Amino acid sequence: MSDKPIWFSNPDLKTLNALGENNAVSHLGIEITEIGPNFLRGTMPADHRTFQPYGLIHGGANVVLAETLGSVGANMVVNPMEYYCVGQEVNANHLRGVRSGKVTGTASLVHAGRTSQVWSIEIKDEEGRLTCISRLTMAVVPHKRN
To answer: Listing from the earlier edge strand, what are the strands of the sheet with 31-35?
Structure first.
């Protein structure tokens, strides 16, 4: 994709992070940190909230980070008065374990169609090493009119 902005409106970090209050997003410590012209970036701590029993970030926590970034991004692309986006399919390849610090996910739009979107999310550790790559398919759903 080009560097041309893809967002329907001008989103801000405070508003986007408020969406994650009092749900799984805040419980896992996920924070959206950057809105680029065609990407969304966020972080998640590698700590007791996100670990599996062996002291590594849980694969499911990676998926929550990926789906959070892709889902928020998808809903920012459409006119919210006409459409909303919901997850249809998510997959993830866990490439490297993370035991401390934080990970950073970057969600980029791969395809924006009339009824679906596809997002690619790369998650990296603090040294910039790829730890997980995920793909998220979102359904674009029209609001029902009475």
So the answer is: 31-35, 39-45, 102-112, 116-124, 130-142, 83-94
